[in-house]
Amino acid sequence: MIDVVNAWKSYKSGTRTVDALRGIHCHIDRGRFAFIVGPSGSGKSTLLYMLGAVDRPTQGEIFVDGENLVAMSEAAQNVYRREKIGFIFQSFNLINNLTAVENVLIPFLPRGVTAQQRADAAELLTRVGLGDRLDHRPYQLSGGEQQRVAIARALVKKPLVVLADEPTGELDSKTGDEIYKILRSLQEAYHTTLVVVTHDRRFINPHDLVLEIQDGQLVGGPNGSPASSEVSNGLPAEVRAAE
Ligand SMILES: Nc1ncnc2c1ncn2[C@@H]1O[C@H](COP(=O)(O)OP(=O)(O)OP(=O)(O)O)[C@@H](O)[C@H]1O
Predict the structure, then answer these.
(1) What's the CA dihedral at 149, 205, 185, 171 to 10 degrees?
(2) Beta-carbon neighbour count of residue 197 at 10 Å?
(3) What is the pLDDT of residues 130-174, one digit of tens each?
(4) Among 37, 89, 161, 223, which residue is least crowded by beta carbons within 10 Å?
């Protein structure tokens, strides 16, 4: 469902060029829980935001649900992000003067909120354990509760893919466990594809897809072994089969 084909990303700063991604190939099936792991500065966030069409690769193609993100106009990319992608950030990114339910409804605000959407938002907040805090504002919620609101906001439009950048980076480990439990149960309920950047491999389950990046290139998975049947040495299964 997601296919990244020879993606390169170079940033120029002054006379220096940084190759943040150096020929990434990977495939993520619909409904997978995929992790992007690797050292600081290895290109994890760069890859994640490419999947969200926040930025374009310098070279290569990125296909999501049959659409080539690289060939899209900016307007089409905006529609893609709005309709198909839910984002979850490390620092929650909630709006302080809106209530929890209003924060969840943010994706719908530009076009006006329907009664059904309001009901969906309340239901999602109940699912993440905040049914009694719909009208709380972010500063009245703990970090873990704020991240649960952000998760509900990412899922309320039933996106094809949820992209999360260090979603537990600002939370203690017990709260982190709760957040992953919630992410996994929502993923099961909504059949969403989840791609998560993390430093913390504790949250990775054996059947998850692990994309390990070093210096902008995919390498083997945890413990140096191929992380899953889908990726080995950075090549998608169909490419390996053709070798
Ligand atoms: N806008 C930018 N301009 C210039 N260089 C950038 C830009 N964004 C990222 N980089 C560089 O690209 C490389 C990869 O960055 P990226 O943020 O993807 O790494 P990361 O693996 O997510 O790191 P971390 O775990 O520390 O968040 C780094 O060397 C970074 O400095």
Answers:
(1) -20
(2) 23
(3) 999 999 999 999 999 999 999 999 999 999 999 999 999 998 999
(4) 223
CATH number for the domain spanning 107: value is 3.40.50.300
pLDDT in tens, 69-121: 999 999 999 999 999 999 999 999 999 999 999 999 999 988 899 999 999 99
The alpha carbon of 43 and the centre of ligand 1 are apart by a number of angstroms equal to 6
Q: ipTM surpassing 0.95, yes or no?
A: yes
Count of domains forming the chain: 1
pLDDT at 180: 93
**To test the ligand 1 pocket, which listed residue (13, 45, 163) has its Cβ within 8 A of the most ligand atoms?**
45
